[in-house]
Design brief:
Helices cover 18% and strands 43% of the residues. The chain is α+β, with helices and mostly antiparallel strands and 168 residues long. It has an eleven-stranded mixed beta sheet with strand order 4-3-8-9-10-7-1-6-5-2-11. 35% of the residues are buried.
Amino acid sequence: MSDLDISMGPINHVAMAVKDWRVTAKSYAKLMGIKTWRVMEISSDMMETSEYYGEPAEFVWISAFARMGDTLIELCEPVSGKTVFDDFVKEHGDGMQHVGDLSHPNPLELVKEYTRQGVKVGNYCNIAGVAELYYLDTREQLGGMFLEVVAPPTYARIADLGEDVTFD
């Protein structure tokens, strides 16, 4: 892979693929003081387009979001169907699965440049009227993890969807 003409920018989002988001969130509450999580079910039913490595796919996962300083932390629990989160958990167990710059000024150009260089899109999600999510399979290039790009930029904000869950 040659150098790209476009740079990623700051990493402001880290995500773990986990078997059980509640168990993991409780551990974050005890060990790191992150007690409140915004939880939402992400389903292909809510999307105009949902793909797994370029093929149409039906899936569900649960995302739980919290902030730690300027960083958006996400726990991704696969529920059903083909997702990069399910692949990760089956292969490695719980662990860091992707990072992202959710404030890139031109995210679609970033995706275009990466895919032009041979990077594959693991999951693509077009959530009608909300956002396009690209989970770029950069495992070979980035030591085993994916890169997430979101259009339009969310600036690592927690979505207004879902419900808050707090652990003691």
